[in-house]
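@channel sequence for tomorrow's demo:
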Amino acid sequence: MEKGMNSPEALPSKSFQASDTKVTAKEFEINKAEKGKRLGFVLVHAGAGYHSESKAKEYKHVCKRACQKAIEKLQAGDLATDAVTAALVELEDSPFTNAGMGSNLNLLGEIECDASIMDGKSLSFGAVGALSGIKNPVSAANRLLCEGQKGKLSAGRIPPCFLVGDGAYRWAVDHGIPPCTPDIMATKLSLAAFKRNKRKLELAERVETDLIQLKKRRQSSEKENDSGTLDTVGAIVVDQDGNVAAAVSSGGLAMKHPGRVGQAALYGCGCWAENTGVSNPYSTAVSTSGCGEHLVRTILARECSNALQAEDAHQALLETMQNKFISSPFLVNEDGVLGGVIVLRSCRGSTNPDLEQDKQALLVEFLWSHTTESMCVGYMSAQDGKAKVWLQ
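structure tokens (generated this afternoon):
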């Protein structure tokens, strides 16, 4: 069963550039699954920002492929975290997304990536920041999560859940993740964008010496970068047993300072996943995209997850985006608040109250919202056989 409706008109805000929210509910009948195959659902995004019409086909295709990779994992009975990682690897490998291969270059012309992943069942978290030399940063984040679940290290040391820079690189290589050379990570598109941005920056620094002009230049530059290069990628999944997982990966802002870490690596900011519990009637998963500094200061992923416990998820998400993000007191001095989220919540439910809980249908409601010019989203259930994509 699938049903959906478009969002009502968004609440007004001076910094609100656009708002598009889609609400859809799906019901999975577990007893109809093919023998040997398990059910599940995946929702992915190729970023909230600006997606040119000339590349729309590529964005849609990569979202479809990412959905298919995740569903294959879920049907095979793999962990939800493995499924969400498979989706992100596909998104990172695309030269059209700002994650993994083809990421934005920093001021020194280098690629430094951020990624994180969260398991809703164990609440375990893994993340890497400002990571260079690893083709798929999400794989390193997932490995950190998995190693952390094994318990303490020798001499009672606490295993890390978040590593940055050279330390993250060394840890990844030591744990079997193959390194790659910089020429593999940079693409013709990312190199061309770096050269354009560098020329603009050099010209602006020569011409503008007045403090007010400098402030205007920075604001203009931030808007330009945000609208064109915020295509962070993310995915959220729920498996047949109701376990949720979420992940996010990003190359960060174009021309960022070396060592800068954005929301994609930070706890509660880039992604969130939490299974149902005593105080949570719904399992929830969230992945964010947009200007990292805005998302970090509002801890948007966790805020959205908390809001989804309300009865009306659609209204709760709209209010959260308005009150906790767009009109947040932490962003009061920002001219434009740029971000987007994909979210899902799930629970067991059935019209037959006599069914045991583990035999009841898994009800999944998923939504997305953004304040940017566009956002590319794809979704698929194990029953669909074909991914659906949305770009607007």
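heads up for whoever presents: Residues 29 and 151 are 36 Å apart (CA to CA).
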